[in-house]
């Protein structure tokens, strides 16, 4: 009965999406009779279909209701030879729909694409619970392209399996260092030129620049940002990262909010806030308000993405401010000549966009062969660049997006939507992302230069990898860290806003409170998981 109720709730959430599921059931019930040798495409599957549960994604849901209707979906079907019936959760309730899908237990699709690393207990729990398949034998038998890629790239191989050695998904992998950086500090470069200033390299440079914005340009909020993005608010330059990270001095897990550098950071941000260098709306600012301030002169520096920051703001501001220019800069250090050790990259693999095969699939081989197509040379081009002659052409040895897709696909769509109809490289999915995608997606010179400015060689060594706790550890960690994260955020906000003084007494009280909440136990659990990861 419980499963029936959950299934009814799931259908109610999906609305018209349930029609896709219903239509899929009959075709997918047919077990494939495959005559094509493994590794060859297109596959002759004897008319069998696959059901594939996946978020349609922001780049597509503005113009399409189903992946099968996109040029990308049609090309994947044609070139792989495999018919796929896609089932999409509501874009505003993906997590809720996923939970109901798992709870229903019955009539699961062949493939479910989700971030299984983020779930309590991690992937091994869902393998042991009989929800998704352990894919070691499946990849060995039916996925030669992924198998060969992982064999040739042991660093990626270690990332995409569990501590027990289980492969559980066909992963989304960022295939180049330039694909691992997308957000960071940004400044109005045209203002720097007007003021005769160079991009800041130290915290003192930043302070003097923001003073100039405030006093010489009469900017009401020289530095602005959304509080949820505070991890990128200069923290790496103070010698720590927000949350759990790997300390460069001993290569062990550390918690940023109890480091001496955290106190220095809070003291600096508190002083800047009191001096009106930081937006007074820091704690409540919305993304829309940030965009407005950065395009109309209300602020001159922030934390943002290269695409939705530099790209969107420049397009919006230049019609009225032709000299408008944003420059992306690396995190500043305390003293000139110091070496920056930490930054905040995206991981090569973080679990997102990864496709698992369910235990209820009657077409495991067909599902594996379809997913393996993403790592085949033809599939790699389709996922990253789309349809040759339509969305890209080969220019020398480089797949190059066509003017057609770069200018709105004949419909004046924003670039992300135009590309999203033809590729998955604007998001994620079961394939290896190609660096030539981002080099062309960032079509403004300052965007690509900003990306290069963000890159910090060696930074991934200290960024917490996708380690997994055991089911028991996961529950304990969640209980400890939920309280600690809430407490540290609230106490930090009071200090920066000036409602509580930061001094030796309040800092020591803060440290003692975090210690009582169990931070050392949480660090020990994370360290144990890190050691298991290193032993993979």
Distance between the termini: 41 Å
Q: Helix- and strand-based class?
A: alpha/beta
For this structure, the CATH topology of the largest domain is D-Maltodextrin-Binding Protein, domain 2
Strand arrangement within the widest β-sheet reads 2-1-3-10
Low-confidence stretches: 1-29
Mean pLDDT: 93
Range of strand content: 5-15%
Largest beta-sheet characterization: 4 strands, mixed
Number of helices: 23
Helix content: 40-55%
Number of beta-strand segments: 13
CATH architecture of the largest domain: 3-Layer(aba) Sandwich
Task: Give a short synopsis of this structure.
The protein has 536 residues and is α/β, with parallel strands linked by helices. Helices cover 44% and strands 10% of the residues.
Describe this structure in words.
Helix 1 runs antiparallel to helix 5, helix 4 runs antiparallel to helix 16 (377-385) and helix 21 (471-497) packs across helix 23 (519-534). Strand 11 (392-395) and strand 12 form a beta hairpin. 43% of the residues are buried. The protein is globular, with a radius of gyration of 25 Å. The model is unreliable at 1-29 (pLDDT under 50). The strands form five sheets. A four-stranded mixed sheet has the order 2-1-3-10, with helices on both faces. A three-stranded antiparallel sheet has the order 8-5-9. A two-stranded parallel ribbon has the order 4-13. The chain is an alpha/beta fold. The chain has three domains: 2-176 and 350-376, 3-Layer(aba) Sandwich (D-Maltodextrin-Binding Protein, domain 2), CATH 3.40.190.10; 180-238 and 255-346 and 441-462, 3-Layer(aba) Sandwich (D-Maltodextrin-Binding Protein, domain 2); 471-534. It is built from 23 helices and 13 strands.
